[in-house]
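ligand=magnesium ion
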Amino acid sequence: MRIFAIGRNYVDHIHELNNERPDDPVVFTKPDTAVLRNNAPFYLPSFSKDVHHEVEMVLKIGREGKNIEEKFALKYVDSISLGIDFTARDLQQKAKEKGLPWDIAKGFNGSAPLSDTFIPLNEIKDLRNINFRLEIDGKLKQQGNTGLMIFSVEYIISYLSKFFTLKTGDLIFTGTPKGVGPVSVGNRLTAYLEDEKMLEFEVK
Ligand code: MG
């Protein structure tokens, strides 16, 4: 299983970090050791003083494919879920300034908490109108709607599959809306897809 992730896919989030709107999807990956399941606590790593939450819709790939055309892309999606793309913003900032890769800033252990709930695609009415949000200690921090994505699910799948053969079980983090910010020890993160609680875990 691989984890692909798309950066800068919501305009309002691009603005809050003073990034440029990309011409093509910004792609990075995380190793499988990044995944946290079962609402396991997230341990703040010692190497960063600024770990940010990024709540994102996650796609699970249901069949193998490469060079997938946009019009067939949804046939390759098994289900959707929610995850957090934890980012060591200080390490990422250093890498960005030097034009270096983001791997350690984005792919460290536990940097991808993932809901255990996956909603089959055929139960989704409209993939371009899904509300999701993140609360910390009961306060709303991020709120997104998949209709605001710059690159659609179909486009992302088609684009990724030009470079990488997508395999059954692969995960795609589709980008975060605005409201990212630091987490600290003792925080309780709760993420919802529409009104369904998908994730609830503690920062330790
Ligand atoms: Mg992200």
